[in-house]
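=== How it folds ===
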Amino acid sequence: MAAGKKREAYIFVLPAFIYILFVLGYPLIYNVYLSLRNVDVKNLTKGGDVFIGLQNYIDLFKNPTFLLVLKNTFVFTIACLLFQFTIGFALALFFYQKFRLSGPIRGVLLVSYMIPMSVTGLLGKNIFSNAGLVNNLLSKIGIIGPEWLVNTSTALIAVIIMNCWVGIPFNMLLLISGLTSITPDVYESASIDGANWLQRFWYITVPLMKSSMLSVLMLGFIYTFRAFDLMYIMTAGGPLNSTDVLGTYSYMLSFTQYKFSQGSAVAMVLFGCLFIVGLFYLRLLSKED
């Protein structure tokens, strides 16, 4: 590339770089700074905080509540990914077939994905309330439904169900786009050679969809792992931290208990997990290339 063209390219990139530096870079650096000090509501304005190094992180990993929150985050993420991807892939294969009402039905399914998460949270709160839709349907078949959102054993299940309701259309949409990139000639050749539908799926669809499936799983992990609004609206992390995840726990420490340094440390743990997943994803992509 010529020197003039190179300078011109840098000029076009510069605004985006400045935006990232100030809007994303500065908060991240300041968050690291807070997590290494003992900032709370008493010394936030007076400036009496001191550098304590990794003590906030050590205290976190000794805290049973944080370990429960970390467990909840991974359970929530893995459960959502499992159901979202499996059902989304099945729906993608179904709607990939050509039939008359494929487009309208697929459009109706996408409505849940287009609804704001705050509305989804309020909807889930009403659906899983004691007199909500779920318990009402269970009562019609003679089952007394549990108190979903106030029971520690069922609250997380209710949140997972609502998150899957949003995530399944997202997975379906991305996987359908991956299916359309496979040329029909490949399937026709396999049919002529005597391959049945299961063999075509396992030996043609899955290998050719590998990069799309990997992208969907990684994006789904990132979006789900950093979830906040759905839990905060439906349960506010309760009961007894049973639906608290890293995002809600960091918010609670920072803006409810005013332990800003510990909240920042939780946020850095969240960032570290996502950073490792991002590096893993980039490594897999480089192997694919």
Q: What stands out?
A: The two ends are 24 Å apart (CA to CA). The chain has one domain: 64-288. The longest helix spans residues 3-35. The CA atoms of residues 58 and 265 lie 10 Å apart.
